[in-house]
Amino acid sequence: MPPFEYAPAPESRAVVDIASSYGLFIGGEFVAATGGTPFKTVNPATEEVLAEVSEASADDVDAAVRAARTAYTRVWSRMSGADRGKYLYRIARIIQERARELAVLETLDNGKPIKESRDVDVPLAAAHFFYHAGWADKLGYASLGADPRPLGVVGQVIPWNFPLLMLAWKVAPALACGNTVVLKPAETTPLTALLFAEICRQAELPPGVVNIVTGAGATGQAIVDHPGIDKLAFTGSTAVGKMIARSIAGTRKKATLELGGKGANIVFDDAPLDQAVEGIVTGIFFNQGHVCCAGSRLLVQENVADEVVRRLKRRLGTLRVGDPMDKNTDVGAINSKAQLDRIAALTEAGEAEGAQRWDSGCELPTAGYWFRPTVFTDVAQSHRIAQEEIFGPVVSVLTFRTPGEAVAKANNTPYGLSAGVWTEKGSRILWMADQLRAGVVWANTFNKFDPTSPFGGYKESGYGREGGRHGLEAYVKTGSEQ
Ligand code: NAP
Ligand code: MG
């Protein structure tokens, strides 16, 4: 228990206007959907309905792709990079100006703590637009190949864990490189994408450059299957990523897939242990563990394992779990009932397979979807909780004796998205980073993101990179490429 009670510090909900219902954003206008069944998006912390959202049918997706094609051929691909950059700077500044509104809306629709949407999601979304605005007129100097040119119309499908930030990762590089987009946000978190549509209008972005179609898997599939799409950018589960790869096999569509992960956070006995414990908390309890690159497998050197686990449990007892709109909250709500059920099923499998389960025992609100910060010890590599992505506030602890064993265990997963190394030896950090089959390796820190740094996976974590100069490669063709 914390030594004293915190007074409530609620963020105001009054800073956002949520409409009772939303249309689709096609050709610069909000239009009614044709035929689909509208659905409701809820606040997962209270189960309150926030708004009714349209389901885009295949016909609506077709209209969006046509609008994107027209905008591409008539306006966006002809505009100079410097002019495209001006629109991106404008969008970046509006995101900053409307940051509080975006953060509150994200927290209401997603359930993440307001301090995270305010300090991480929204500032990073703005940073992605600023960063790519700078590239728009310099693509010829980015070592992408001779004569970099846009691909055309890009279909983008994103998940619910970082709704606005994933939109920014997708939209900013696509537009900077001269492409137009049709984007589908996740079914449970469409609201910040719809506010972003309004921001595109405010920035006077030419109609059709950004189109936003809401819906569930079928709408995403309609984007994937549409013959007018030149490239697909997908972030989501490995299962859906594989389906997409199958659907587009044999077509000319290019794709980048950012999929799941089972990141290893590796703590050596010479690491500063309290700092490592903070890194473990950031690694797996940030955003309720709904993070593809979460440090969900904690690998601790055997001689300090008991001590690290003892300190970790003590620290988890001080995490404040509850109302995401409270500025003191550390861990918010699980995004949906379906995700809560998945977490519960996997943690039950962990117990059934013989791992030791511990949770922080904190009180949970009565309404909404919640899960206590949970630690599993006595975990074997074969356990499902060591192999499968739980995507929740649950860490599985394994031990190792030598650096070689740490590498072998860390790499023993079908995924390869992220890893963390905690040690005071620089040479060991470099050696480990070289051995780990992971797209990102953090050293003495975890879950740090920056638009200048490429992000992406090995193996079943997907292919292609987002961010940095490498991220631009996915949005251009070069040389004699048609
Ligand atoms: P998901 O089920 O794969 O959904 C991702 C997106 O794809 C959603 O917009 C979803 O729509 C849509 N979709 C579902 N079925 C589809 C289909 N057949 N064709 C086209 N689109 C389809 O994943 P999720 O459960 O929402 O997200 C969690 C997963 O994303 C985790 O595995 C996580 O690791 C991964 N992730 C990866 C990264 C990364 O950068 N590597 C980042 C964040 C998350 P609806 O949700 O509306 O049904
Ligand atoms: Mg929601």
Word description of this protein:
By secondary structure, this protein is α/β, with parallel strands linked by helices. It folds into 2 domains: 256 residues, Aldehyde Dehydrogenase, Chain A, domain 1 (3-Layer(aba) Sandwich); 187 residues, Aldehyde Dehydrogenase, Chain A, domain 2. Helix content is 39%, strand content 17%. It has 15 helices and 20 strands. The strands form 5 sheets. A 7-stranded mixed beta sheet has the order 14-15-16-13-12-17-18, with helices on both faces. Helix 9 crosses helix 10. The radius of gyration is 22 Å and the shape is globular. The model has no long low-confidence stretch (mean pLDDT 97). It binds NADP nicotinamide-adenine-dinucleotide phosphate and magnesium ion (MG). The site of magnesium ion has 5 residues, from strand 4.
A few lines on this structure:
By secondary structure, the protein is of the alpha/beta class. The protein has helices at about 60-75, 80-95, 100-110, 115-135, 165-175, 190-200, 215-225, 240-250, 275-285, 300-315, 335-350, 385, 405-410, 425-435, 470-475, and strands spanning about 20, 25, 30, 40-45, 50-55, 150, 155, 180-185, 210, 230-235, 255-260, 265, 295-300, 355-360, 375, 395-400, 420, 440-445, 460-465, 475.
